[in-house]
Specification:
Blueprint lengths: L2 E15 L4 H10 L3 E15 L3 E5 L6 H8 L7 E6 L8 H4 L3 E5 L11 H11 L4 H15 L14 H13 L5 E5 L7 H18 L2 E5 L3 H7 L2 E6 L2 E6 L1 H8 L2 E8 L2 H8 L6 E7 L2 E7 L5 H11 L2 E7 L3 H9 L5 H5 L8
Parallel strand pairs: 3-7, 3-8, 5-6, 6-7
Antiparallel strand pairs: 1-2, 1-4, 8-9, 10-12, 10-13, 11-12
Helix pairs in contact: 6-7
Protein backbone atom coordinates (compact mmCIF):
# COMPACT_ATOMS: atom_id res chain seq x y z
CA UNK A 1 0.00 0.00 0.00
CA UNK A 2 1.64 3.32 -1.06
CA UNK A 3 2.05 5.96 1.64
CA UNK A 4 0.02 9.15 1.33
CA UNK A 5 1.30 10.73 4.56
CA UNK A 6 4.77 10.27 6.06
CA UNK A 7 5.57 11.92 9.40
CA UNK A 8 9.01 11.53 10.94
CA UNK A 9 10.21 12.88 14.32
CA UNK A 10 7.72 15.75 14.27
CA UNK A 11 8.24 18.36 17.00
CA UNK A 12 6.42 21.62 17.73
CA UNK A 13 7.55 23.96 20.52
CA UNK A 14 5.75 27.11 21.59
CA UNK A 15 7.30 29.98 23.53
CA UNK A 16 4.94 31.37 26.13
CA UNK A 17 4.93 33.29 29.40
CA UNK A 18 2.75 33.52 32.49
CA UNK A 19 0.90 36.83 32.79
CA UNK A 20 0.99 38.59 36.12
CA UNK A 21 -2.26 39.56 37.81
CA UNK A 22 -3.74 43.03 37.99
CA UNK A 23 -2.92 46.36 36.37
CA UNK A 24 0.53 46.59 37.96
CA UNK A 25 1.26 43.05 36.77
CA UNK A 26 0.27 44.01 33.22
CA UNK A 27 2.62 47.00 33.35
CA UNK A 28 5.46 44.80 34.60
CA UNK A 29 4.82 42.37 31.73
CA UNK A 30 5.48 45.18 29.27
CA UNK A 31 9.08 45.42 30.48
CA UNK A 32 9.93 42.03 31.98
CA UNK A 33 8.58 38.60 31.09
CA UNK A 34 9.53 35.12 32.22
CA UNK A 35 9.36 33.00 29.09
CA UNK A 36 9.15 29.22 29.01
CA UNK A 37 9.04 26.67 26.22
CA UNK A 38 6.09 24.32 25.85
CA UNK A 39 6.37 21.20 23.67
CA UNK A 40 2.98 20.48 22.12
CA UNK A 41 4.14 17.67 19.80
CA UNK A 42 7.08 15.50 20.84
CA UNK A 43 8.84 13.33 18.21
CA UNK A 44 5.72 11.95 16.55
CA UNK A 45 6.24 9.52 13.66
CA UNK A 46 3.71 7.60 11.57
CA UNK A 47 2.70 6.78 8.00
CA UNK A 48 -0.78 6.59 6.49
CA UNK A 49 -1.40 4.42 3.45
CA UNK A 50 -3.62 5.18 0.51
CA UNK A 51 -7.30 4.68 1.28
CA UNK A 52 -6.85 4.33 5.07
CA UNK A 53 -9.38 5.87 7.46
CA UNK A 54 -7.43 6.67 10.63
CA UNK A 55 -8.77 7.93 13.94
CA UNK A 56 -6.48 10.39 15.78
CA UNK A 57 -7.66 10.94 19.33
CA UNK A 58 -6.47 12.23 22.67
CA UNK A 59 -7.55 14.36 25.63
CA UNK A 60 -7.72 18.15 25.40
CA UNK A 61 -4.23 19.59 25.06
CA UNK A 62 -2.73 16.31 23.85
CA UNK A 63 -1.38 17.77 20.59
CA UNK A 64 -4.06 16.66 18.10
CA UNK A 65 -4.97 20.06 16.70
CA UNK A 66 -1.33 21.17 16.55
CA UNK A 67 -0.51 18.02 14.58
CA UNK A 68 -3.38 18.61 12.15
CA UNK A 69 -2.34 22.24 11.64
CA UNK A 70 1.18 21.12 10.71
CA UNK A 71 -0.18 18.40 8.42
CA UNK A 72 -2.37 20.94 6.61
CA UNK A 73 0.45 23.50 6.33
CA UNK A 74 -1.01 26.07 8.73
CA UNK A 75 1.85 25.68 11.24
CA UNK A 76 5.56 25.16 10.62
CA UNK A 77 7.15 22.42 12.78
CA UNK A 78 10.07 23.19 15.09
CA UNK A 79 11.75 20.11 13.63
CA UNK A 80 10.91 16.91 11.83
CA UNK A 81 9.65 15.93 8.41
CA UNK A 82 6.23 15.70 6.77
CA UNK A 83 5.50 14.54 3.24
CA UNK A 84 1.82 14.43 2.26
CA UNK A 85 0.62 13.77 -1.29
CA UNK A 86 4.27 14.23 -2.29
CA UNK A 87 4.47 17.77 -0.89
CA UNK A 88 5.99 19.45 2.14
CA UNK A 89 2.83 21.13 3.49
CA UNK A 90 4.30 24.44 4.73
CA UNK A 91 6.87 24.91 1.94
CA UNK A 92 4.59 24.05 -0.98
CA UNK A 93 1.32 25.15 0.56
CA UNK A 94 -0.31 26.64 -2.56
CA UNK A 95 0.08 23.45 -4.62
CA UNK A 96 -0.47 21.17 -1.62
CA UNK A 97 -3.81 22.66 -0.58
CA UNK A 98 -5.27 21.81 -3.98
CA UNK A 99 -4.77 18.13 -3.13
CA UNK A 100 -6.43 18.06 0.30
CA UNK A 101 -9.81 18.67 1.86
CA UNK A 102 -10.30 19.99 5.40
CA UNK A 103 -13.40 20.01 7.59
CA UNK A 104 -13.37 21.81 10.94
CA UNK A 105 -16.48 21.12 12.99
CA UNK A 106 -16.39 24.54 14.67
CA UNK A 107 -15.72 26.58 11.51
CA UNK A 108 -17.13 26.73 8.03
CA UNK A 109 -15.39 27.22 4.69
CA UNK A 110 -18.66 28.39 3.12
CA UNK A 111 -19.46 32.08 2.62
CA UNK A 112 -21.86 33.12 5.38
CA UNK A 113 -24.35 35.41 3.61
CA UNK A 114 -24.76 33.74 0.21
CA UNK A 115 -26.53 30.60 -0.89
CA UNK A 116 -24.73 27.27 -0.54
CA UNK A 117 -24.72 26.72 -4.29
CA UNK A 118 -22.89 30.03 -4.82
CA UNK A 119 -20.13 28.85 -2.44
CA UNK A 120 -19.96 25.61 -4.40
CA UNK A 121 -19.68 27.56 -7.68
CA UNK A 122 -16.83 29.64 -6.26
CA UNK A 123 -15.02 26.46 -5.17
CA UNK A 124 -15.59 25.02 -8.64
CA UNK A 125 -13.76 28.01 -10.14
CA UNK A 126 -10.98 27.96 -7.52
CA UNK A 127 -10.24 24.26 -8.05
CA UNK A 128 -10.89 24.41 -11.82
CA UNK A 129 -13.46 21.60 -11.73
CA UNK A 130 -15.08 20.90 -15.09
CA UNK A 131 -18.85 21.35 -15.35
CA UNK A 132 -19.37 17.63 -16.04
CA UNK A 133 -17.35 16.63 -12.96
CA UNK A 134 -19.07 19.26 -10.82
CA UNK A 135 -22.56 18.09 -11.83
CA UNK A 136 -21.64 14.42 -11.33
CA UNK A 137 -20.21 14.94 -7.83
CA UNK A 138 -23.04 17.18 -6.70
CA UNK A 139 -25.59 14.59 -7.82
CA UNK A 140 -23.60 11.83 -6.11
CA UNK A 141 -23.35 13.80 -2.87
CA UNK A 142 -27.06 14.58 -2.96
CA UNK A 143 -27.90 10.85 -2.92
CA UNK A 144 -26.64 10.53 0.66
CA UNK A 145 -26.56 14.06 2.07
CA UNK A 146 -29.77 15.38 0.43
CA UNK A 147 -28.14 18.69 -0.46
CA UNK A 148 -30.58 20.00 -3.05
CA UNK A 149 -33.02 21.39 -0.51
CA UNK A 150 -30.25 23.54 1.05
CA UNK A 151 -28.49 24.77 -2.09
CA UNK A 152 -30.26 28.14 -2.36
CA UNK A 153 -30.35 28.84 1.38
CA UNK A 154 -27.83 31.32 2.87
CA UNK A 155 -25.34 29.49 5.08
CA UNK A 156 -26.26 31.62 8.11
CA UNK A 157 -29.82 30.23 7.97
CA UNK A 158 -28.76 26.56 8.03
CA UNK A 159 -28.92 24.43 11.15
CA UNK A 160 -25.62 22.98 12.41
CA UNK A 161 -26.40 19.57 10.90
CA UNK A 162 -27.32 21.07 7.52
CA UNK A 163 -24.21 23.23 7.48
CA UNK A 164 -21.95 20.29 8.32
CA UNK A 165 -23.40 18.28 5.42
CA UNK A 166 -22.61 21.15 3.08
CA UNK A 167 -19.13 21.65 4.58
CA UNK A 168 -18.23 17.99 4.06
CA UNK A 169 -19.48 18.16 0.47
CA UNK A 170 -17.50 21.37 -0.14
CA UNK A 171 -14.29 19.75 1.15
CA UNK A 172 -14.73 16.85 -1.27
CA UNK A 173 -16.01 18.79 -4.29
CA UNK A 174 -12.57 18.73 -5.99
CA UNK A 175 -12.11 15.01 -5.15
CA UNK A 176 -8.96 15.40 -3.01
CA UNK A 177 -6.97 12.22 -2.34
CA UNK A 178 -6.48 13.27 1.32
CA UNK A 179 -9.14 14.55 3.74
CA UNK A 180 -8.61 15.93 7.26
CA UNK A 181 -11.66 15.90 9.53
CA UNK A 182 -11.56 17.76 12.86
CA UNK A 183 -14.66 16.98 14.96
CA UNK A 184 -16.96 16.65 11.91
CA UNK A 185 -19.98 15.46 13.93
CA UNK A 186 -19.67 17.72 16.98
CA UNK A 187 -23.06 18.88 18.23
CA UNK A 188 -25.03 16.89 15.64
CA UNK A 189 -28.06 14.73 16.31
CA UNK A 190 -28.10 10.99 15.60
CA UNK A 191 -29.66 11.34 12.12
CA UNK A 192 -27.15 13.96 10.97
CA UNK A 193 -24.20 11.97 12.37
CA UNK A 194 -25.30 8.81 10.59
CA UNK A 195 -25.77 10.69 7.31
CA UNK A 196 -22.23 12.11 7.42
CA UNK A 197 -20.68 8.78 8.46
CA UNK A 198 -22.47 6.96 5.64
CA UNK A 199 -21.30 9.59 3.15
CA UNK A 200 -17.66 9.39 4.30
CA UNK A 201 -17.66 5.59 4.04
CA UNK A 202 -19.14 5.80 0.55
CA UNK A 203 -16.52 8.34 -0.59
CA UNK A 204 -13.72 6.20 0.83
CA UNK A 205 -15.09 3.09 -0.87
CA UNK A 206 -15.67 4.66 -4.28
CA UNK A 207 -12.75 7.08 -4.58
CA UNK A 208 -10.19 5.56 -2.19
CA UNK A 209 -9.94 8.86 -0.30
CA UNK A 210 -7.49 8.74 2.60
CA UNK A 211 -8.95 10.25 5.80
CA UNK A 212 -7.50 11.37 9.13
CA UNK A 213 -10.23 11.97 11.71
CA UNK A 214 -9.95 13.68 15.09
CA UNK A 215 -12.96 13.42 17.37
CA UNK A 216 -14.14 13.11 20.96
CA UNK A 217 -17.11 11.01 19.80
CA UNK A 218 -15.64 7.51 19.86
CA UNK A 219 -18.63 6.10 18.01
CA UNK A 220 -17.23 7.96 14.96
CA UNK A 221 -14.03 5.94 15.35
CA UNK A 222 -15.87 2.63 15.70
CA UNK A 223 -18.08 3.39 12.68
CA UNK A 224 -15.41 4.73 10.33
CA UNK A 225 -11.87 3.76 11.29
CA UNK A 226 -9.99 0.47 11.19
CA UNK A 227 -6.90 2.10 12.69
CA UNK A 228 -6.57 4.26 15.78
CA UNK A 229 -3.77 6.53 16.99
CA UNK A 230 -3.89 7.81 20.58
CA UNK A 231 -1.79 10.86 21.46
CA UNK A 232 -1.19 12.34 24.91
CA UNK A 233 1.31 14.96 26.09
CA UNK A 234 2.51 15.24 22.50
CA UNK A 235 3.49 11.57 22.18
CA UNK A 236 1.76 8.72 20.33
CA UNK A 237 0.81 6.13 22.96
CA UNK A 238 -0.85 3.67 20.60
CA UNK A 239 -1.02 3.09 16.86
CA UNK A 240 -2.97 0.04 15.72
CA UNK A 241 -6.39 -1.53 15.36
CA UNK A 242 -9.36 -1.20 17.70
CA UNK A 243 -9.62 -4.95 18.39
CA UNK A 244 -5.92 -5.10 19.35
CA UNK A 245 -6.32 -2.15 21.71
CA UNK A 246 -9.27 -3.77 23.43
CA UNK A 247 -7.41 -7.04 23.81
CA UNK A 248 -4.45 -5.22 25.35
CA UNK A 249 -6.50 -3.35 27.92
CA UNK A 250 -9.64 -5.42 28.25
CA UNK A 251 -9.29 -6.41 31.89
CA UNK A 252 -12.94 -7.09 32.73
CA UNK A 253 -15.65 -8.95 30.84
CA UNK A 254 -19.33 -9.40 31.52
CA UNK A 255 -21.76 -12.23 30.75
CA UNK A 256 -25.41 -11.14 30.64
CA UNK A 257 -27.80 -13.96 31.53
CA UNK A 258 -31.55 -13.82 30.74
CA UNK A 259 -33.53 -16.32 32.82
CA UNK A 260 -36.78 -18.26 32.40
CA UNK A 261 -38.52 -17.39 35.67
CA UNK A 262 -38.12 -16.02 39.18
CA UNK A 263 -37.09 -19.42 40.56
CA UNK A 264 -34.07 -19.37 38.24
CA UNK A 265 -33.33 -15.82 39.35
CA UNK A 266 -33.11 -16.99 42.95
CA UNK A 267 -30.71 -19.76 41.94
CA UNK A 268 -28.47 -17.41 39.96
CA UNK A 269 -28.44 -14.84 42.78
CA UNK A 270 -26.88 -17.53 44.95
CA UNK A 271 -24.37 -18.59 42.26
CA UNK A 272 -20.77 -18.58 43.43
CA UNK A 273 -17.55 -19.00 41.48
CA UNK A 274 -14.08 -17.65 42.33
CA UNK A 275 -13.35 -14.43 40.44
CA UNK A 276 -16.99 -13.87 39.38
CA UNK A 277 -19.20 -11.05 40.72
CA UNK A 278 -22.95 -11.43 40.25
CA UNK A 279 -25.10 -8.30 39.92
CA UNK A 280 -28.78 -7.95 39.10
CA UNK A 281 -29.68 -6.11 35.88
CA UNK A 282 -33.47 -6.43 36.17
CA UNK A 283 -36.08 -8.93 37.42
CA UNK A 284 -35.01 -11.80 35.14
CA UNK A 285 -31.56 -10.66 34.02
CA UNK A 286 -28.19 -10.79 35.75
CA UNK A 287 -24.74 -9.64 34.77
CA UNK A 288 -21.72 -11.71 35.78
CA UNK A 289 -18.49 -9.72 35.80
CA UNK A 290 -15.08 -11.41 35.70
CA UNK A 291 -11.46 -10.88 34.70
CA UNK A 292 -10.36 -12.90 31.69
CA UNK A 293 -6.99 -13.77 33.15
CA UNK A 294 -8.73 -15.37 36.14
CA UNK A 295 -11.87 -16.94 34.62
CA UNK A 296 -12.34 -18.79 31.34
CA UNK A 297 -15.59 -17.66 29.64
CA UNK A 298 -16.30 -21.21 28.37
CA UNK A 299 -16.03 -22.63 31.89
CA UNK A 300 -18.30 -19.92 33.30
CA UNK A 301 -20.94 -20.55 30.64
CA UNK A 302 -20.77 -24.30 31.25
CA UNK A 303 -21.35 -23.78 34.98
CA UNK A 304 -24.26 -21.42 34.36
CA UNK A 305 -26.20 -23.64 31.93
CA UNK A 306 -25.71 -26.64 34.22
CA UNK A 307 -27.09 -24.84 37.29
CA UNK A 308 -29.91 -22.63 35.94
CA UNK A 309 -32.33 -22.56 33.02
CA UNK A 310 -31.53 -19.66 30.71
CA UNK A 311 -33.30 -17.96 27.81
CA UNK A 312 -30.24 -16.22 26.43
CA UNK A 313 -26.56 -15.56 27.10
CA UNK A 314 -24.73 -12.48 25.85
CA UNK A 315 -21.02 -11.76 26.20
CA UNK A 316 -20.77 -7.99 26.55
CA UNK A 317 -17.78 -6.25 25.03
CA UNK A 318 -16.14 -3.43 26.95
CA UNK A 319 -16.96 -0.14 25.19
CA UNK A 320 -14.10 1.71 23.55
CA UNK A 321 -14.90 4.74 25.74
CA UNK A 322 -13.90 2.76 28.82
CA UNK A 323 -10.67 1.50 27.23
CA UNK A 324 -9.62 4.98 26.09
CA UNK A 325 -10.67 6.54 29.40
CA UNK A 326 -8.25 4.26 31.22
CA UNK A 327 -5.43 5.49 28.97
CA UNK A 328 -6.37 9.17 29.40
CA UNK A 329 -6.60 8.93 33.20
CA UNK A 330 -3.36 6.98 33.54
CA UNK A 331 -5.02 3.77 34.79
CA UNK A 332 -3.45 1.91 31.87
CA UNK A 333 0.33 1.71 32.10
CA UNK A 334 2.18 3.45 29.28
CA UNK A 335 4.24 0.28 28.87
CA UNK A 336 1.02 -1.60 28.08
CA UNK A 337 -0.05 1.07 25.62
CA UNK A 338 3.33 0.98 23.88
CA UNK A 339 3.24 -2.79 23.56
CA UNK A 340 2.77 -3.80 19.94
CA UNK A 341 0.18 -6.56 19.57
CA UNK A 342 0.07 -8.56 16.42
CA UNK A 343 -1.12 -6.30 13.61
CA UNK A 344 -0.45 -3.07 15.54
CA UNK A 345 2.09 -0.55 14.32
CA UNK A 346 5.13 0.21 16.50
Amino acid sequence: MPSVVEVENLVKDFRTFDRREGVWGAIQDLYSRQYRNFRAVDNVSFTIGQGEMVGYIGPNGAGKSTSIKMLTGILVPSSGRIVANGYCPWRERTRYTRTIGVVFGQRTQLWWDIGVVESFRLLQKIYEISQAEYDHRLAKFDEVLELKRYLHTPVRKLSLGERMRCDVAAALLHNPPLLFLDEPTIGLDIVAKESIRTFLKEVNREYGTTMLLTTHDLSDIEELCHRLMIIDHGKVLYDGGLPELKRMLWRESALKVDLRDRDQAALLAAFSMPGVAVERADELSYRLRFRREEVQPAELIRRIVNEVQVLDLTMEEQPIEEVVRRIYTGEALHDDAHASPEGARP
